[in-house]
Amino acid sequence: MADEPDEDVRERLRAALWFAVGKMVDEESLRRNRNVTPQFIGALMEMVWTHIESVAMDLESFSRHAGRSTITTDDVLLLARRNQDLHGIIKDFVDKEKAAKAKGKSKK
């Protein structure tokens, strides 16, 4: 019984992912004048879900290894380290956010 709320959340997340993937695929298939089957959308959603689970486990492992119980931007940057373009985009975003916070604190 303790797993029921977790399973309910999991199923709602999967349904939301199905909807989001389906919407993106529908938009792209209309733009390209192509037909897509529900089976394709389901397979793509499963692939994305599996990747999300893997990313989540890696982030938790990085955080735990650093002795933290909270995932930080450092963990995300570590995860993206092998994709230089993605790493650069995330690093630029994090740096801008830190600068904005520092600027906001200095005004007070």
Automatic annotation (TrEMBL):
Q: What's this protein's name?
A: Kinetochore component CENP-S-domain-containing protein
Which BP terms in the Gene Ontology apply to this protein?
double-strand break repair via synthesis-dependent strand annealing; replication fork processing; resolution of meiotic recombination intermediates
Listed CDD domains: HFD_CENP-S
An example Gene Ontology molecular-function term:
protein heterodimerization activity
What domain of life?
Eukaryota
Give GO cellular component annotations, separated by semicolons. Answer: FANCM-MHF complex
What family does this chain come from, according to its entry? Belongs to the TAF9 family. CENP-S/MHF1 subfamily.
Q: Read off the lineage from the record.
A: Eukaryota, Fungi, Dikarya, Ascomycota, Pezizomycotina
**Which PANTHER family did the record assign?**
CENTROMERE PROTEIN S, CORTISTATIN
| Entry-linked SUPFAM superfamilies | Histone-fold (SSF47113)
Annotated keywords: DNA damage, DNA repair, DNA-binding
Q: Which InterPro entries match?
A: CENP-S/Mhf1 (IPR029003), Histone-fold (IPR009072)
